[in-house]
């Protein structure tokens, strides 16, 4: 990578920090359940990306997919070290404080139902749902993060949504 290209990629990465830090932090938090550790993982994601930037190769995917792959690997490493292997229930995610208490209670009950239904999905399906809807990645980006084809991700997403719909209607 030329020095000029490296400078351009560094500038792009700085812009991505502003755009993706919160999403990566939220993704890590949902997976590990500890806000401080999730923020550490988000920061470490960008440090690792900066160090690896000279060897970064464009593969037809946005740099955000690469960042989430780094974050995913850091989360897996964290979970291995802690041997917890559990996710934070969706009902533990912070909601705005200016929400009507009745609506907040109803929302928390609904999130608890979704969280329970998520447990019925395979780990891969759960990951697809987290990356697509919590981290807001495209199916191609999710495929890159998970090391799967776009078609496989779309199929997992479709079957996961169908299963969730079935469980939530019951």
Averaged pLDDT? 83
What is the CATH topology of the domain at 1-88?
Answer: Rna Polymerase Sigma Factor, Chain: A
Q: What series of H and E elements makes up the topology?
A: HHHHHHH
Rg over C-alpha atoms, rounded to the nearest angstrom:
17 Å
Strand % is under 5%
The 3D shape can be described as: globular
Uncertain segments are 84-88
Give the end-to-end Cα distance, rounded to a whole number of Å: 55 Å
Main beta sheet? none
State the secondary-structure class: mainly alpha
Number of distinct beta strands: 0
- The CATH architecture of the domain at 1-88 can be named as Orthogonal Bundle
* Separate helix tally: 7
Q: Topology, pairings included?
A:
Elements: H1 3-32, H2 35-52, H3 63-82, H4 101-118, H5 123-134, H6 139-146, H7 150-169
Helix pairs in contact: 1-2, 1-3, 2-3, 3-6, 4-7, 5-7, 6-7
Task: Describe the protein's architecture and organization.
The protein has 170 residues and is mainly α. 74% of the residues lie in helices and 0% in strands. α1 packs antiparallel against α2, α2 packs across α3 (63-82) and α6 (139-146) crosses α7 (150-169). 24% of the residues are buried.
Brief descriptors of the model:
Rna Polymerase Sigma Factor, Chain: A, 170 residues, 74% helix
Summarize the model shown.
With 170 residues, this protein is mainly alpha-helical.
């Amino acid at each position: 990578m030329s020095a000029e290209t490296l400078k351009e990629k560094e500038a792009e990465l700085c812009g991505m920090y502003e755009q993706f830090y919160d999403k990566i932090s939220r993704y890590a938090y949902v997976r590990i359940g500890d806000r401080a550790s999730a923020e550490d993982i988000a920061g470490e994601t960008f440090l690792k990306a900066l160090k690896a930037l000279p060897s970064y190769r464009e593969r037809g995917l946005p740099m955000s997919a690469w960042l989430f792959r780094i974050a995913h690997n850091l989360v897996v490493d964290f979970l291995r070290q802690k041997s917890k292997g559990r996710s934070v229930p969706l009902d533990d995610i912070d909601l705005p404080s200016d929400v009507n208490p009745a609506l907040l209670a109803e929302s928390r009950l609904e999130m608890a139902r979704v969280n329970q239904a998520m447990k019925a999905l395979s780990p891969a399906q759960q990951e697809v749902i987290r990356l697509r809807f919590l981290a807001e990645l495209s199916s191609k980006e999710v495929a890159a993060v998970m090391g799967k084809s776009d078609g496989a991700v779309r199929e997992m997403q479709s079957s996961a949504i169908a299963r969730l719909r079935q469980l939530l209607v019951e």
